[in-house]
Amino acid sequence: MADPEATRRAERIAALPLAEIGRHKGLLEGTVDSVRDVWSRRELLGLLVRRELKARYKNSSLGLVWSLMRPLSQLLIYYFAVGEIIGLARAIPDFAIFVFVGLTAWTLFSEIVSNATTSIISNQGLVKKVYLPREIFPLASVGSSLFNFAVQFLILLVAVTALGRFPLTVDVLYAAAAFIMLVTFATALGVLLAGLTVYFRDLEHLVEVVLAVLFWASPIVYSYTFVREVIGGTLLEQIYLANPVTVAVLGFQRGLWIAGSEPGSGVTWPPDLALRMGVMFVASVAVLWIGQRIFSRLQGNFAQEL
Amino acid sequence: MTELSTIVAVQGVSKRFVMHQDKSLKERMVAFATSRKHRQDFWALRDIELEIPTGSTVGLVGHNGSGKSTLLKVIGGIIQPSSGTVRRRGRLAALLELGAGFHPDLTGRENVYLNAAILGLTKAETDRYFDAIVDFSGIESFIDTQVKFYSSGMYVRLAFAVSVHVDPDLLLVDEVLAVGDEPFQRKCLAKIAEFQREGRTIVFVSHSSDQIGQLCDRVVVLDHGSMVHDGSAADGIKVLRESFEAAHSPPPRVESPDGVLTSGARIDDVRVSCSSTDLSGDFLPGGDLRVEIDYTIGSVPAGWIAGIDIETPVGQGVYRINTDGLGMSLPARPGSYSLGIDLGGNALGAGSYQLHASLVTPEGRDLDRRQPAASFSVSTEPGSVGVVHFRASADLTVG
How do beta strands B289-297 and B335-343 pair? Predict the structure, then answer.
């Protein structure tokens, strides 16, 4: 123990508080703790996001282009099959933009939820062997999904600019608000599902199925106007509008699909869209908070359940 | 020097695992009514009390499934205990698996940054250590290759290099030192010794009693989740050995009431002597050692073997020989015998030694074993250290 470095180290360690490890159980301080934990590892979060993105396209020669192929192919399918062949394009102005706006919002949501759901399981090597704030894994999925969204959104902007349909109105704020609300909601679901899937592996498959159903429960390839015609004013319409994804998609369309807001377009919007988004944002924050608390409870046993 | 502060305090920690095979939702639904019956509690740890002072090296040993790794994970915060608390301070690095978090598709360089971040380094710190890490791993030319093309040795070397540059105050090591080739293992052990000099605290799990004896100043023996020993390395290894032997089936030996052996074998006495000793009875270098084993055999399989082991008090093997190796076959006729083994020219270094004697079947099953059967000390001229002794001298020529 004659080594001066050893003595210095011992003195430094002795000055540190002997802190209990493990999470606080309290609702508020627990959350504060978790947020501080994740914040202190934000650099790692960034690296994990980059790892997911890099690793995904590392071995393909086209790389990033592939992340554009899927939404573009979907756009083509819906544009021709639903728009031209079924004939919805005649009833919906600027149908291509309409579909692409909806798809962009939907892809963001479904990618966050499905990637976050499997995030703990696919990182089980790390979860079992290293202590990290485990929230970091679903959050990394959110991060990589946001990157893909950014790329897709960029294409959308290029497309609307090229078509001379750039949204230069205040309504753009709808899209911004919808984006924030959608990301919060998807993150909340993702964190909750990530924790639960460790215990119930079936959820992974269930989420896939539910997402496929939900795709048709939001006005992405058809417009809200049709929904209104069929179930307008009924309780069913209220249920339909109680879906945060639906409201977010409507917000995106309101902001970015200017043909729908032009006078005489014959497009109807649900009343109080802004208010609905506000309420759902608050609700999403609450779900995120509760979801994180549940996650925090569950994560204590992750290492042994995996 | 002031009293060393505690770096880890484990208080009353227990960990219960609930074993249930029904994993899926359907199975849980079906088994819901009966699940209480089906679930089995398994205590991986029971009431562990452990205080580790700063700068010490603690070895955790025990059988497979005795809870060593679980305890290490509890200290590391990876598993939360069912009850009890763990308090800790300082920077922690857990080497539970080398290269946890390495992504096969990323290059070595990218993985170094990622792994370092996982272990808690900032990017600036990693930048600073990067050259040292690559240098230690010795794979400069492959650093920009994807790690999936690495050989397993390169992979492990890079991972270890990252881990030891994290500058931890407390290092948890789980049997990772058993990997890699010999030069690399030596490098690892040298690094651990350096860590000890620098006053870092190390807690490690190992199955090698040589390593434990060499590195640890304290050994905790776990058995079925309970601590059965906490003390010096030498005692710990002895406790562990005894529990291993208890697990063996006891040597079959049948004795008639008047002490005559009808089956099996028995070591009656073991003596060790040296042709040259000093006044206190310590053996001197160069003398001839003679080991005499008195034994009695009943009916034993033909071709059985008698052997001796010489070990240091901490359990490091020094020398081992048996009658098979000496080209001697022992008679299997019942009776009492005295076997003498001569070890000419004592080459042991200064220190005390233990002699174990064993009688085994040709398949290696124990007939009887005495551990230790005898002990002795060797003294040499002061100035040399080690388990072997040479007639050392030095000369110097100018020019």
Answer: antiparallel
